[in-house]
Amino acid sequence: MFFRQILDEANGCASYMIGCAGSGDVVVVDPLESVGADEYVLAAADRGMRIVRVIETHLHADHASAARTVAEAAGAPVSLHEGADVDYAFEPLREGDTIAVGNALLQVLHTPGHTPESISLLVFDAARSRDVPWLVLTGDSLLVGDVARPDLVLDAAPDAAEVRGRARTLYRSVHDRLAALPEGVEVFPGHFGASACGGRYLSAKPSSTIGFERAANAALRASSEEAFIEFVLGNLRPQPEGYRDIKRRNMGRDAAPAVPAR
Amino acid sequence: METTGVMAGSVPAFEPSEVQARIGRGEVRVLDVRPLQAYLRGHVPGCSAVPYVRRQFALMVQTLVPTGLPLIVVADGAVITREAAHDLDVAGHKVAGALDGGLAAWEAAGLPVEAVEMVEPAELTRRTGQGAVTVIDVREPHEWSDGVIPGARRIPLGALLSRMGELDPAQATAVVCASGNRSLQAAWLLQQRGFGRVANLVGGMYGWQDAGLPVE
Predict the structure, then answer these.
(1) What's the ipTM?
(2) For residue B66, what are the contacts with CB-CB under 8 A and spacing of at least 6?
(3) Which of A17, A24, A109, A171 fits a 20 to 30 Å CA distance from A148?
(4) Is the pTM of this model over 0.80?
């Protein structure tokens, strides 16, 4: 199985390429405009692979997504959770779907809370084990040392009750589903370091394990669902500037600003 | 030259039938820059091929692609077409354009496709039994002590280009390495040098020995 984490250090964002050198196919997850669509395409070609799909774990509010530009450059589809509210054509993913990329098997887990359409990808390397998952791409749900914020709502005046409800949903995703995975499963999130999407406890290390997060993640160690909700809502850093505009562009609702020619 | 289709950056696109016609008149050379595995699965017969790998492309083009004829690039998508065309231009090649729709369009147009065959050990041993194929083992010398397919020629991958004169391009040829990956490079080099009937042993010598087949 081929697996690479591609980081934007300045903004604390993580993207991924997962595939199989044997089959020559690779999937890109949450590609970053800050890295540039060209880089993903050329990196795949450098390794003798071809991008067959782009997956967005959710609609991002803090950074510009390169999902559509990568997909167009590669002639590949974009996949999101079936409930994603976007203004462009995409291939819907459902809870339990498995995407096979050569030996890499990506199982879709619906893990809402940060956003309603958030998914995680549980990854198996069929060449090693079809039964024991190796890693999980959590997008913005479970982070290293923290969990993602539930308050970046598109509506102009976010309703406190709705935010609370999303925190509750986040608990169920993070505590009941992700934290219940085998402890050896590696955690690869969408954010790390000084990102606006995590709280005060977000680690600068861009990966972890389920077992270590169970032992040392303050949000996961909350004694109850209510304690978790209080912890998450009490832990929020300032909302990223212009997040509504960024999100609308990623949804295809507004045009992106013109990019200067190379 | 007249073009059809949409420009990929500044690289004009040519329809498959157009490209085929120009090949027939000896006006262009096709250069396939797709990943190696894509090339091996199917490509324009007789084309040049150098997979677009950023650090290696310029050097391999210099080694494998003769200048003289303008090039038609076969690539997956506009980004690689643009980058490859830029590097080719810097290397002194004239890029006439790109194959519109890539190899998929070529195949859809019913035009002939050449490929490297993937063979399993059972099939290869059947062919060697009939004397119908020349086997080339491209592993390093220290690996040959693990056992070599009876009758195989031993030419390490790194020496293949310089020793190709020892081989007959008209002969059916099968390439073999340890796992079946390095031999893909050998298959590519042989096709580039005019070997029309090339097969790759899937799984390499590991697979051959797992199948309990004899070695010398």
Answers:
(1) 0.80
(2) B29, B48
(3) A17
(4) yes
